[in-house]
Amino acid sequence: MQNFEPNLLYKTDENWIKTVLNDFDYFLQDHADCERKASSMAMSFVAKCPDKLEIIPDLIETALEELVHFKLVYEIMEKRGVGLPKEMEKDPYINELMKHIRSKGDARLMDRMILASIVEMRGAERFKLVAENLEDPELQKFYTTLYKSEEKHGDIFLDLASKYWPFEEIKNRFEELLTIEADICKNLPFRAALH
Prior knowledge:
Blueprint: H1 14-22, H2 24-48, H3 56-80, H4 92-98, H5 105-133, H6 137-161, H7 167-187
Helix pairs in contact: 2-3, 5-6, 5-7
């Protein structure tokens, strides 16, 4: 997207990573849920935008990649004897973000794409923190690969949005939603979860 370098406005507090490392098995369960939800989200764009043929292949590719991430996390969980949770918990971070999506047609779709980008950026930032703070070399390698993949996904959703809306419109709305996202992060309690 032109000369736009999107950056998160809130830097995750070091107490978040301490909370994660204190209950890493729970973090893995939440991580697995996040990957399943991310795959479903990409496919929900396909379902809601069957006429937007230019973006469907990238959305399918993203959905498949997130599903592979789920498989890889699940394999780690199996090795550690950690099962999937009986039901997916509601994510307070996502719930708060969704309150700020506009309700009408194209504006709603643009907001959802921008928020998908922000969520991927936050995931990349936090997976990087996990990679840098784990002692297990295998897990370090896994989370390093993962955060690089999530960085790419953040760019994908902005690039897809740019096929339908002007650069300035996306940039302005992105900056508004980044400010909202930073406030949400500041006010949410830390938990052993990605968000």
